[in-house]
Amino acid sequence: MQTPLIRILGPIQISDGLRPEPLRGAKPCALLTALALRPGSVVSLEKLLDALWAGEPPRSAVANLRSYAHLLRRRLPVATPLISHQGGYELRVAPDAVDHLVFERLADRGRSAVTDDPPRAIELLDAALALWSSDHAAPGVERYGMLDGPLRTLDAERIRATEDLADAWLGVGEPHSALRTAGQVLAAEPLRIRSWLLVLNAHHHLGERGRVTDAFESARTVFRRELGTEPDACLGRLHQQLLAG
């Protein structure tokens, strides 16, 4: 798979077609992120100003925005123009040149294959997750305005794709890999019920009856400590089903 020209699934980078190079400066990074989230669409000045400044932007904001756009034009490949429109800017780039769109496409295809073709799902989901070089999209970019929702969604989709991968590992009879993958999620997001379900199933596949119960009790401890509640009832039902089986 060819390296995308614009990368926001980690530190912001622009590739010259050969290798990615980091983009410096918080505001240029925020501007490129905002435009890359809507490639081929005109993003209004109002939305861009909200994405770059919290609250009331400074009087020089529009002039500063033009300067950041000029910097991006110097860094972007000729075939990836940044177009000025009346009232906004457009990053004219093919979908496969932006990493988050490639990730979304691969993750969707992998998710669809988990049940019917788990080996193919593993291949697709591995490729999707390999596009990430950080636990969060656009680290270091402040999530103001239009940036907040889409970046949070990307973070959530990374977690979901990781859980899909763990599910696919179970589908090919590799519970150790499923445990490792689901454990990566729980290390960062210990309240993920689906990951706990995957962990219990993985221990069951390994014939580790005692560890099924240990994992269930660990989940209960986490939920009691963090939320003061028991985990979702589906976890308890699975625990009983696996012990009964």
From TrEMBL:
A Pfam family it matches: Trans_reg_C
Domain of life: Bacteria
InterPro entries in UniProt: AfsR-DnrI-RedD_regulator, BTAD, OmpR/PhoB-type_DNA-bd, Sig_transdc_resp-reg_C-effctor, TPR-like_helical_dom_sf, WH-like_DNA-bd_sf
Limits of the OmpR/PhoB-type domain: 20-91
SUPFAM superfamilies reported in the protein's UniProt record: C-terminal effector domain of the bipartite response regulators, TPR-like
Annotated Gene3D superfamilies: Tetratricopeptide repeat domain, Winged helix-like DNA-binding domain superfamily/Winged helix DNA-binding domain
Key words, A-Z: DNA-binding, Transcription, Transcription regulation, Two-component regulatory system
Residue ranges of domain Bacterial transcriptional activator in the record: 98-243
Keyword Secreted applies: no
The family this protein is said to belong to: Belongs to the AfsR/DnrI/RedD regulatory family.
The protein's name in its UniProt record: BTAD domain-containing putative transcriptional regulator
Native source species: Streptomyces tibetensis
